[in-house]
Amino acid sequence: MKKRLVAACIWTCALLAAMVSSCSDDDTIEYNKTYVKYKLTLGPHFQMFYGIEVVYCDMEGKVFNETVPSLELDSKSLRSTWSYKDEKDGDHDIKFGFKAIARCKPIPTSFDMTSNTTYDLSHSAAVSWYTKTTGAKVYAPTNKSIDPLKLDTAQLRSYLNTHQEIILMDYPTDVEQ
């Protein structure tokens, strides 16, 4: 009985060794998609004071221009997100560009600028893409991202006066060559 057990163990080990040695480095799984994604992440009060226009293109270079609608706030992150993703099977040469501009809205006369409320105007933007040639890439300029940006009402008035227009993203012109 012991001889059979030892023989079975030897055969099992030999079989496993043969299976492992038959694998080669050429057996890698390739991600067979190409994509580009644009994303804006905004603090809970950002759209109260700013309207946002985005201009972007799909992977074929078709340009889209839209006003970002009022976004729903995620209850866990307390952030709202706008995004666009274009994805195709296979490896493709891609074109992409993304510009997002926030313009200050008029402050309603009914708005109480004397309250002790803190306003979160945090914002960030990113572009990400993947091709077999480039691999995965992300561009998210930290000089354009402000998180957190929490202001009391006195700071808010000053901020809005000095930041009538904010360029949240302008890619590829943001990139230093």
Mean pLDDT: 79
Number of helices: 3
Question: What structural category do the secondary elements indicate?
Answer: alpha+beta
End-to-end CA span:
73 Å
What is the rounded Rg? 26 Å
State the share of residues found in helices, binned by percent: 10-25%
User: Major sheet, described briefly?
Assistant: 4 strands, antiparallel
Quick synopsis:
The protein has 177 residues and is of the alpha+beta class.
Give your account of this protein's structure:
The structure is a single chain. The termini are far apart. The chain contains 3 helices and 10 strands; from the N terminus they run αβαββββββββαβ. It is an alpha+beta fold and about 180 residues long. Helices cover about 20% and strands about 35% of the residues. It is elongated. The protein has helices at about 1-20, 45-50, 155-160, and strands spanning about 35-40, 50-55, 65, 80-90, 100-105, 120, 125-130, 135-140, 150, 165-170. The strands form 3 sheets. The protein has a 4-stranded antiparallel beta sheet with strand order 4-1-7-8, with no helix packed on it. A 4-stranded antiparallel beta sheet has the order 3-2-5-10.
